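User: Sequence recovery, please. Input:
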C-alpha cells in the first residue's frame, strides 16, 4: 500500500489548477491557500483521496470574501437583531451598487464644487416627515441620542422617567449612554408610574431638556401611568423623544408604536430613531426636528465621529424613496397569503415530513413589544434545524414542541424557492 502522504499534491500544483486560480483572483490568495492547506491535511489524514484536494478546497471556499453568510430568516421574528435587523430591499441593494464605487456623495456635478454630503437623504426624510424642519443621519440610534446629549446637555440635566430607563441589548443601557457624554440624568417618578408633577418638580435652571424614551423591547402592564409628549411639551422646556423603531408615520397594525411625525406634531423639538428597525433600512440613527437645533447638532464636533458612509446614505435614501421595504411588506402580509405560500412550498416537498401549521410571529427587538402577528409556518422534524443552519444559504427556523418551524412572516416571497431548495438539500443529505 502506498503511503498517501507521498501522493498529496504540492501547494504550487493545486494553486495552478485553473479553478483554484480563478477562485484566488476573486477571493484573494490567502483565503484560497488556507483552504488548500486544509484539504491537503485531509488527504494526509486519509479523509479524502489525494486527487480530490483541489475539489475539496473549492468546496470549502466561501461564496464571497467575507466570513458573513446569508441566512434566510424563518424565525417569525421580523426584526432579528442577531440576523442584522432589517433586510434591505431591491432598491436599497441597487443603490449600494452605485455607492460602492466613486459617487457624487459630496460633489455638485453641475458646478464641480463641493456639495452638501447626504443632501438626498435629508430631502427624503423631510419629505417623509413634513413637521421636520431639519434632519441629520448618524451611525445608529444610540449615536443620535448621545450626540444630542453631548450638544445640549454636558454639565446640565436631562429629566427622564424611571419607567423609561431602557437597556437596549448586549448590556447597553440608555441612562449609561447618556451619562457617558457628561450630561447628568435627573430621574423622576417610579418604574410603573410617572406624573406630570414629577417632571414639574424636577425642572429647573439646570434642565437641558426632558427626554421621552419609548420602551421598545418591554411592556409594563397593570397599575401604570406615563406622561405623553404633548403634556411634557407644555412644561416650557424642550422635549427630545427617542422613539426607537423609526416609524416615520403611524402604522395601522402597531397603534402603540410612536412615530416621528406624530411626536413632532405633539411638540417634541427633536426625535431620534434607528434606520434598521421598522423603517426597514440600513443601520443608521435619525435625528429629525427643529431646523436650527438639527443644524447645531450637525455642526457639533463630535458629529464628525458619528458620520455615516456613502453606502448607508445610499441605502437609506433608496429605502425612503423606493417601494415598500421588506420589513414593511412582512408586517403587512395577509395571513391568507402566507398560508398560500406555505401550501405551495409543502406541495414542492412531497417526500418530506412537512405540515403547514398556524404560527405566531413577532416584530422583534426593534419595536412593538407584546404584539404578536398571526402567521403560518412549515413544521419539519426537529433534526432539520441544525442541518438547515449548516446549508448555503443558512436557514434559521424556530424550535417549538419538538418540531422545527419555518415561519414565513419574515421571509420575502422571492426567497420561497430558495427555502424549498434548502429543505430538499437537507432531505437528500439525510
Ligand atoms: C433600538 C433603540 C435604541 C438604540 O438604537 P440603535 O440603532 O440600536 O443604536 C435606542 N433607543 C430605543 C428606544 C431603541 O428602541
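Assistant: Recovered sequence (430 residues):
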Amino acid at each position: 500500500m502506498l503511503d498517501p502522504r507521498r501522493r498529496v499534491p504540492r501547494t504550487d500544483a493545486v494553486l495552478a489548477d485553473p479553478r483554484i486560480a480563478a477562485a484566488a483572483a476573486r477571493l484573494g490568495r490567502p483565503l484560497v491557500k488556507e483552504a488548500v492547506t486544509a484539504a491537503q491535511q485531509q488527504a494526509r489524514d486519509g479523509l479524502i483521496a489525494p486527487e480530490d484536494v483541489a475539489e475539496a478546497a473549492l468546496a470549502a471556499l466561501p461564496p464571497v470574501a467575507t466570513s458573513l453568510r446569508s441566512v434566510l430568516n424563518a424565525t417569525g421574528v421580523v426584526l432579528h437583531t442577531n440576523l442584522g435587523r432589517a433586510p434591505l430591499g431591491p432598491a436599497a441593494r441597487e443603490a449600494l451598487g452605485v455607492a460602492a464605487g466613486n459617487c457624487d456623495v459630496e460633489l455638485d456635478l453641475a458646478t464641480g464644487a463641493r456639495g452638501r454630503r447626504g443632501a438626498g437623504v435629508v430631502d427624503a426624510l423631510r419629505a417623509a416627515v413634513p413637521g421636520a424642519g431639519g434632519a441629520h443621519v448618524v451611525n445608529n440610534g444610540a449615536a443620535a441620542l448621545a450626540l444630542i446629549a453631548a450638544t445640549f446637555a454636558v454639565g446640565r440635566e436631562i429629566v427622564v422617567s424611571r419607567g423609561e430607563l431602557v437597556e437596549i441589548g448586549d448590556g447597553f443601557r440608555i441612562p449609561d449612554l447618556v451619562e457617558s457624554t457628561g450630561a447628568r440624568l435627573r430621574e423622576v417618578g417610579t418604574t410603573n408610574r410617572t406624573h406630570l408633577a414629577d417632571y414639574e418638580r424636577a425642572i429647573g435652571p439646570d434642565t437641558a431638556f426632558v427626554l421621552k424614551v419609548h420602551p421598545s423591547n418591554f411592556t409594563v402592564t397593570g397599575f401604570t401611568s406615563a406622561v405623553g409628549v404633548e403634556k411634557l411639551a407644555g412644561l416650557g422646556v424642550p422635549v427630545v423623544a427617542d422613539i426607537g423603531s423609526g416609524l416615520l408615520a403611524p402604522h395601522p397594525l402597531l397603534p402603540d408604536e410612536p412615530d416621528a411625525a406624530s411626536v413632532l406634531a405633539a411638540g417634541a423639538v427633536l426625535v431620534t430613531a434607528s434606520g434598521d428597525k421598522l423603517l426597514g433600512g440600513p443601520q443608521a440613527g435619525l435625528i429629525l426636528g427643529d431646523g436650527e437645533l438639527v443644524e447645531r447638532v450637525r455642526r457639533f464636533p463630535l458629529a464628525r465621529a458619528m458620520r455615516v458612509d456613502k453606502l448607508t446614505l445610499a441605502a437609506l435614501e433608496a429605502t425612503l424613496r423606493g417601494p415598500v421595504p421588506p420589513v414593511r411588506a412582512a408586517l403587512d402580509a395577509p395571513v391568507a397569503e402566507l398560508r398560500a405560500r406555505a401550501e405551495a412550498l409543502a406541495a414542492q416537498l412531497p417526500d418530506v415530513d412537512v405540515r403547514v401549521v398556524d404560527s405566531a410571529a413577532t416584530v422583534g427587538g426593534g419595536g412593538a413589544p407584546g404584539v404578536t402577528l398571526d402567521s403560518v409556518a412549515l413544521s419539519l422534524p426537529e433534526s432539520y434545524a441544525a442541518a438547515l443552519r449548516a446549508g448555503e444559504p443558512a436557514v434559521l427556523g424556530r424550535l417549538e414542541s419538538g418540531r422545527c418551524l419555518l415561519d414565513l412572516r419574515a421571509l420575502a416571497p422571492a426567497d420561497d424557492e430558495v427555502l424549498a431548495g434548502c429543505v430538499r438539500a437537507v432531505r437528500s443529505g439525510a
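The pocket of pyridoxal-5'-phosphate is lined by residues 140-142, 166, 168, 174, 213-214, 216, 242, 244, 274, 285 (CB under 6 Å).
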